[in-house]
């Protein structure tokens, strides 16, 4: 059954996410072109060498308190969480050059290498600092301070090019990221291996859970929670030697019934896609946008500004 899984997954992913990119994507291209110009051309924020680079690296992904040290009342205060400005969070999948057989829709999920590099350079030149989920959690629940111009970079589905292409690119800027791993793919051709995931974790990135084989959370019953959530999360904890606190919904799809199930299994927050947050439980519907392969750095920036 698993033999055909990667293909089925890509197809399902594309169908499920199509409508979401449409709402956050190309429609916005022409609206705020001036923002990016002022930011990226500012020489004061463009320095990335010597002492400046060290300071930049320190500002990126500063350690934050463990979420378990934050009182439950803070995490339960939905109104306070919703009132805080959202941090832009970008979601990436494959990073590789387009092939002739890639469909039009697939190209939202496949970002050409040069486009990805240009997007990262834009973020760095514009003075963005990457933040990690513990920092975001402390900010959302207690108002803890974040570095200036925070952005979170997230990579879903365990694709190998996240290690071979994205990792060295992020390293140039001292950037850290979140990798939401679907454990069924570990070690398969074109996917990351367990030692790669371990290395990403050891290097200060965060590993999150993204189910066993990418089934829709809204359809889970009984044993599905064990198969899709408990076992794969335990696998990730064994690989990294760290507790896994964060979850990303396959296809960005969620329902409120999932929240207690995730909480029961130790998660403190979960990430969706561009849809509106749940008004009672915003920590379990933290929004992200898919950074499309069609987006120039300027389009990406426009979407970051407008969507969050
Ligand atoms: Zn996924």
TrEMBL record:
UniProt keyword Signal, yes or no: yes
Region (Disordered): 24-70
InterPro entries in the cross-refs: Glyco_hydro/deAcase_b/a-brl, NODB_dom, Polysacch_Deacetylase
Compositionally biased residues, Low complexity: 43-63
GO function terms (MF aspect): hydrolase activity
Chief location category: secreted
Protein name: Polysaccharide deacetylase family protein
Position of the signal peptide: 1-22
Keyword Hydrolase set for record: yes
Known EC number: 3.-.-.-
Keyword annotations: Hydrolase, Signal
UniProt source species: Hymenobacter aranciens
Location within or outside the cell: Secreted
Polar residues bias locations: 24-42
NodB homology domain segment(s): 149-308
Enzyme class: hydrolase
One Pfam assignment: Polysacc_deac_1
Lineage, uppermost ranks: Bacteria, Pseudomonadati, Bacteroidota, Cytophagia, Cytophagales
